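I'll show a record.
***
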Amino acid sequence: MNEDFKYEIIKKLVDTNGNKKAAALRIGCTGRHVNRMINGYRSYGKEFFIHGNKGCKPVHAISKENRRMIIDLYQTKYHDANFTHYSELLATHEGISVAPSTINTILMAEYILSPKACRVTKKRVNKELLDQQKASYLSTDTKSNIARCIVAIEDAHPRRARCAYFGEMIQMDASLHLWYGDTKSQLHIAIDDSTGAIVGGYFDKQETLKGYYNIFHQILVDYGIPYMFFTDRRTVFEYKQKKAPTTEEDTFTQFGYACKQLGVEIRTSSIPQAKGRVERLFQTLQSRLPLELELAGVKTLEQANEFLNHYIKKFNAKFALEINDTKSVFETQPTMEKINLTLAILADRKVDCGHCVRFDTKYYKPIDVNSTPTYFNKGTDALVIKAFDGRLFVSINNKIYGLEEIPSHQATSKNFDFTEDKPKKRKLYLPPMSHPWKQASFQSYLEKQAHRTSTTG
């Protein structure tokens, strides 16, 4: 349009021998440039006003092949990545250097949105697709593609049938809510997908490994070993941090290792609709449980957990399907000692120059079954085990020892306090060496964790 505008003014100026200064003002150029355009018009006509780059592709433009490849790779290989991450992946693995804004332009033209797209963008694109779908001239294939794009944008999830057997899938999650008192707390819940029965529940101040370990303990004691856990992508179940924390703080590894020992599969999803059973359960509990807790006079965390055990039985009797009518696939219940030792926190340590190991800011000395201190060289590898009931053990050189805390001050003085007859020490129970306690087995498991190998490599 700008080229046509200049052409019309110069043509009229030449044909009528008009005012050059007025033409220069209208075009926004100097008088000398008007003279150049007059000469060009007389020599080449309208062709003179066509820009030299017209029809030429810019040097930095993306080729059709690369554009198609960017779309195809995102739909097949990198579909879960946001556009900034996708740009980095293309440069690293595919040798294609493209800015995130360019990727956004290319994929938005195909109505492919980033996982981080805001609600306003989704709403706008959805409206455009709905308007296109109403057009009568579109082919059946085009309308089908538009319908698929609409479903993808709406993040719709098809209904699925319940699992066939009791214990086949246990959905777990936690909900932050004002359940009791004046402070919000986290309710950890596990529900069986087949029967809709609550199989475990625990209150805690935050969503923690302790909360899920308590649920796991309830399931193992009351029912046995389930086939699968289906959870969200919290760090307890799936770690995404680039820098892995210390071993005992790496809750994903701790919970995953416990499941590995018992043969329980873990599946995760960041989409709430994928585990709709437990999400709908929280809607029901949030409308009922706070009032029940208030009527029971619950004010503390301990009281809430005590009340929850009674309430779960009442809830299952009212809402869950009959468990006896469904075949159970829970494996045989482990012994209480095995449950206690499996739901443990494991931590790599080294013996220090004082022949002790440090755990939770305290120092401990290894002792044998007769409560006699055992000494090891400085730097000896040790695997500290904190069992579910809080007892501490240590595995050194494929042998289990107890741990005795070293107090910061002596309780009595040999010089100023009367000596009393010391009671005979009871023989210390030490669990037998088995697979979960072998340091090599735990280290091998750690090396297979992607979030740990990516930081150490």
Summary: Residues 170-337 form a domain with the Nucleotidyltransferase; domain 5 fold (CATH 3.30.420.10). The chain has a mean pLDDT of 82. The chain has three domains: 2-49, 170-337, 344-456. The first strand starts at residue 170 and ends at 177.
